[in-house]
Specification:
The complex is a heterodimer of chains A (633) and B (416). Chain A is an alpha+beta fold and 633 residues long. Chain A has 19 helices and 24 strands. In chain B, helix 14 runs antiparallel to helix 17 and helix 15 runs antiparallel to helix 17. The chains are: A alpha+beta (633), B mainly alpha (416).
Chain lengths: 633, 416
């Protein structure tokens, strides 16, 4: 008996060890072609019967060759379908941002991050500024109509803006300082009047024109229905779940629960008119299974259950190099995507010693950025040798906006321990008591580098930042608070004097106001020392010279003048180092599995205008939905 | 005492467990003496380098090789490493799609296949294939270019004055280096992890830390359990009532839930390895208390205890001299189990992201956690987690074996 138990215990241990090995074989043994014929295996719950009666299929047995599967966008269940709300947690349908998400609701224009242009969607032709740049006029396409068949009119655009202001939605609040009114001249013509400054010029023309590709047009009749239902109460107006919402886009809700969200194509979509796309988008269903985490999403991508992946898949190249799966990214080689935003480490100016430029610069110089990019980002970022640091993202358009040679002497590529030590020595910040750590005015320099817990690539990057301290005699440890705590602390000035000395936050990506908007958010004193600050400059940097330039840029029209201003800003940024970029990150991660669909955006795919790698739902990237074809029709 | 030790070391199970445990312990003690590197030093720029011997390629091509080996199968091996059977088949598929008749393609004739490929392949031709496939062919084309060329490769260096590349040497296909003569060779027996840290060095350190956590947790739990059990069992009355009230309270709350809540509320900045160990100890003393109490109750009315009482010995004296020796073997066994449970609990906590903070020391649980975050299990990077799993399994297995061995000797019901 005892021997049996002994033998059994060995068996149990062995089986534990062996069972741990099995997942490694899963992607390898999964034949890519298998996935083509396989229907998705997730069968969470039955679709509600009223939905099932509307369509011949239910959400659990969507025809694979009519469905495009996503991952990485939707986490947790959808709350609402209300385009006036900013808390719907509805990543598949709602996102009014630089690259607005337009499968269900539409903006007048679509922003294309690859060429920086705004292309008409609901609008007919380009918009036009008047002589003194005080107002924009644009037309609505005659073909555009709502899902209930009524035409989209200028009155809808005007009423949407009026409602944003009346109910003080997030979208109204963030634009009302720059937009005065939006009026309908006739059913097809919209005039957007900018807020004017004392000099009679628009306060910020950049933000006025950005509104056109950022914010949805919402139907006036439906808005009035919503108002009647909520009785003028702003909170109720924004909290309405809006299941009855009228939309103009090519897709609408088919099914949604805590396991899955499915949109179905509206075959009456106006965009099949020759004045827009001339046909319907290819997939009938857009589906997003809600995965537990990135790892689960990666497995689904590898197994062909996901067609378009918008999440961070570490070492993505392994999937095609080692497993030979039909998976690819926008670029064939590292960094695999187009970098657009700059995840940044901010210095807390209140922390002891961090008010000294020498300390800030020495830390930034000592950090091994190549290791951050290779290890934390698994090479899914351009390096700082390829794209020297500035306030611009790595796209050619933004890079051309400043004079690289003028700031050459201020650049640092990282891992420059000797240079950093020299800088500190020269500044008189040395180790006076012989304990191996430097002191400033007799007090040891000791910092905590931090980012939210569970944000794996950021955490790994912060580990590398902390490691830099050892080489230059500055004691840096790491700490990863829960996101709930972290976000409350960093968005509300004053920051604590310890615990948040070097902390990571994001920057703007690509958009119609960039790079100006990103620079403003990174260094403008507008946001320094403020509370409930979701914009930027969380370290509290104040520089009147930078402020003046940031204020002047939106009204500058001369290109040389603009370039000089941007160059000066980069110079200020690289001299003062209020924060430093750790890596470049794409606007959206974009990997596709071509088991079922092909024709996804890839570099050099011949599309004109080029379709950006943004999930096929954001801004101009929605044009990619019309290029998809089945691998095995 | 001597007899007891003799008995213990006669138990095969105990000896096996003891040997495994001592081997791990020796590894933890001796390895850092030989390899003095910082276990958390980031040496690899890149993630999950596979286990193997890393030879510095710059050093190995630095000077002309004095070693020329004419091995008959060298060329064939080179070709196989770059052009597998499936690659040949894929090349055939491409050639077929581009219009070459099937009877003209022979995948076994490398020279002919390569020639056909070089004349026909055009990376700009999509041939209706997916992007993934087109890119596969582009990579293949790049990788096999010049495969059959008998020439060596030229090493060139930039002239600092003119900026022009100048030839400084040639590497021929039959040149070899003796690994022993290369200045920089690094053996990474278990490769690197997602941070580019040497897995083996880190693993050894982590085993040490996890053992410490286990021992501290075990000692804390056993100390509390033993003290409370002895007091409650021997004194009885209201002391027993109070102790049993708390023991029952802790029994009904699952200790892991309690542990998760406490770890979370401590906050990540204060969660050092020792703190975690103490917290684990503080939540796992219950069963020791109950068993010790039960044993003490059965002992307290024995004749020798009554005699001691009559002799006027103090409670402390009686507990230490007349009770403790009778339950000592049980306490040791409980301690061993608590240590192994402590190690497992730390691993469990760290996998949930509630373990010790990361930068200071590695622990087995943290290593598993990072391997999981960076998807080592999906990408087939077994060396990032399998050795850790084996280490955890070996530690707990050895301790449980020792425990079973001891049990057979001290438990009258099991004695052979």
């Amino acid at each position: 008996m005892k021997r049996t138990i002994f033998a059994l215990s060995i068996l149990v241990v062995l089986s534990l060890v062996l069972s741990a090995c099995t997942p490694t074989q899963a992607p390898a043994t999964q034949a890519p072609t298998e996935a083509v014929t396989q229907a998705p295996t997730e069968a969470p719950t039955e679709a509600p019967t009223e939905v099932a009666t509307e369509a011949p299929v239910d959400a659990n047995s969507l025809p694979r060759n009519e469905t495009l599967y996503f991952n990485g966008q939707q986490w947790n269940a959808v709350v609402c379908w209300n385009p006036y709300s900013s808390n719907c947690n509805n990543a598949m349908a709602l996102a009014q941002q630089d690259n607005a998400r337009v499968p269900m609701f539409e903006t007048p224009y679509l922003y294309n991050m690859l060429d920086g242009k705004q292309y008409p969607l609901l609008a007919d032709g380009d918009y036009a500024w008047d002589e003194g740049m005080t107002q924009i006029t644009f037309k609505i396409k005659p073909a555009a109509h709502w899902s209930d068949g009524t035409p989209v009119t200028a009155e809808d655009v005007a009423y949407t803006w009026a409602s944003h202001i009346k109910y003080n939605t997030q979208f109204g609040a963030s634009n009302k300082d720059y937009i005065d009114t939006i009026e309908a001249v006739d059913p097809q013509t919209v005039v957007v009047k900018a807020k004017l400054g004392a000099d009679g010029k628009a306060v910020n023309p950049l933000l006025v024109q950005a509104y056109l590709s950022t914010n949805y047009v919402i139907q006036k009749a439906w808005t009035e229905t919503l108002e009647a239902r909520t009785g003028g109460d702003a909170a109720a107006f924004m909290a309405d779940v809006a299941e009855d919402v009228v939309y103009s886009g090519p897709y609408h809700k088919f099914f949604s629960d805590d396991q899955k969200v499915v949109l179905i194509r509206d075959d009456n979509y106006w965009g099949q008119d020759a004045s827009m796309f001339g046909k319907l988008p290819t997939p009938k269903y857009l589906a997003h299974v809600i995965y537990k985490d990135n790892a689960a999403g990666s497995v689904a991508l590898a197994q062909g259950e996901v067609d378009v992946s918008q999440q961070f898949n570490s070492n993505i190249q392994v999937l095609w190099l080692n497993y030979g799966l039909p998976i690819s990214t926008y670029l064939p080689e590292a960094p695999y995507g187009i970098g657009a935003s700059l995840p940044t480490a901010f210095f807390n100016k209140n922390s002891y010693g961090l008010d000294q430029v020498a300390v800030r610069k020495a830390i930034a110089m000592a950090v091994d950025f190549d290791t951050i990019i290779a290890n934390a980002m698994t090479n899914q970022s351009a390096t700082f040798t390829q794209v020297p640091r500035s306030l611009m993202n790595p796209t050619p358009g933004e890079q051309a906006l400043y004079d690289h040679d003028a700031v050459k002497d201020l650049q640092f590529a990282g891992k420059d321990i000797a240079g950093a030590n020299k800088l500190l020595d020269e500044a008189g910040i040395v180790d006076t008591d012989g304990d191996g750590w430097r002191e400033y005015n007799g007090q040891k320099l000791t910092y905590v580098a931090t980012c939210p817990n569970g944000w794996s690539d950021w955490q790994a990057a912060i580990e590398v930042v902390a490691a830099a301290g050892k080489g230059i005699g500055i004691d840096i440890t790491t700490n990863y608070p829960d996101w709930g705590v972290y976000q409350t602390v960093v968005t509300n000035w004053p920051l604590p004097e310890t615990g948040y000395d070097i902390f990571m936050m994001w920057s703007d990506g690509a958009g119609p106001t960039q790079p100006w908007g990103r620079i403003r958010h990174l260094i403008s004193s507008e946001f320094a020392e403020t509370t409930n600050n979701w914009n930027g400059n969380w370290g509290g940097y104040i520089n009147p010279e930078a402020d003046a330039l940031i204020q002047a840029i939106p009204t500058m029209t001369d290109e040389a003048e603009l370039k000089a201003a941007y160059t000066e800003l980069v110079k200020i940024y690289l001299t003062d180092i209020p924060s430093f970029t750790l890596m470049y990150r794409p606007q959206s991660f974009h990997a596709v599995n071509e088991s079922v669909w092909t024709g996804f955006p890839h570099e050099g795919d011949g599309t004109n205008p080029p379709v950006p790698p943004l999930d096929l739902t954001d801004g101009w990237s929605i044009a990619g939905l019309y290029n998809l074809v089945l691998v095995n029709p | 005492m001597k007899h007891t030790f003799k008995q213990i070391f006669h138990s095969g199970k105990f000896v096996l467990g003891f040997c495994i445990f001592m081997a791990l312990l020796l590894l933890v003690i001796i390895y850092p003496i030989i390899v003095t590197d910082d276990p958390l030093a980031i040496i690899g720029q890149g993630t999950f380098f596979p286990p193997g011997i890393y030879v510095n390629s710059y050093d190995s091509i630095d000077k002309p090789s004095p070693y020329i080996l004419n091995l008959p199968d060298a060329a064939a091996k080179r070709i196989v490493s770059k052009l597998s059977e499936s690659d040949r088949q894929e090349m055939k598929d491409w050639l077929l799609a581009s219009g070459i008749p099937e009877n003209e393609i022979d995948t076994t004739d490398t020279a002919k296949l390569m020639e056909q490929w070089e004349t026909n392949y055009d990376p700009t031709k999509g041939l209706g294939m997916t992007y993934a496939k087109q890119r596969y062919y582009q990579r293949l084309d790049k990788s096999i270019s010049g495969l059959l060329s008998p020439e060596g490769k030229i090493i060139a260096a930039q002239n600092p004055d003119t900026g022009i590349l100048e030839q400084v040497g040639v590497i021929n296909q039959s040149d070899y280096v003796n690994v022993g003569e290369v200045a920089n060779v690094r053996v990474l027996m278990l490769g690197t992890d997602n941070f580019g840290r040497d897995m083996l060095t880190q693993l050894v350190k982590a085993i040490g830390v996890s053992l410490q956590i286990g021992i501290v947790a075990g000692l804390v739990a056993t100390a509390i359990g033993l003290t409370l059990g002895l007091l409650s069992g021997y004194i009885g009355g209201w002391v027993d009532d109070i102790v049993m009230f708390f023991t029952n309270l802790f029994t009904v709350i699952p200790s892991f839930v309690l542990l998760v809540l406490i770890s979370f509320s401590i906050g990540q900045d204060k969660r050092g390895a020792t703190t975690i160990a103490i917290v684990i100890g503080l939540t796992s003393w219950v069963w020791t208390t109950r068993s010790v109490r039960a044993s003490v109750i059965s002992l307290r009315n024995r004749d020798h205890v009554n005699l001691s009482k009559l002799s006027g010995h103090s409670i402390v004296h009686i507990i230490i001299n007349d009770i403790l020796p009778y339950i000592a073997s049980y306490v040791i066994m409980a301690l061993i189990l608590q240590i192994s449970a402590g190690i497992l609990t730390e691993a469990g906590l760290s996998i949930l992201g509630l373990g010790p903070r990361t930068t200071e020391v590695p622990t087995l649980g943290l290593m598993m956690n990072w391997a999981m975050i960076y998807q080592a299990h999906i990408l087939g990077k077994w060396w990032a987690y399998l050795p850790v799993l084996v280490a955890i399994a070996l530690i707990t297995f050895s301790m449980n074996l020792m425990n079973t061995g001891l049990d057979q000797i001290f438990n009258p019901a099991l004695r052979e």
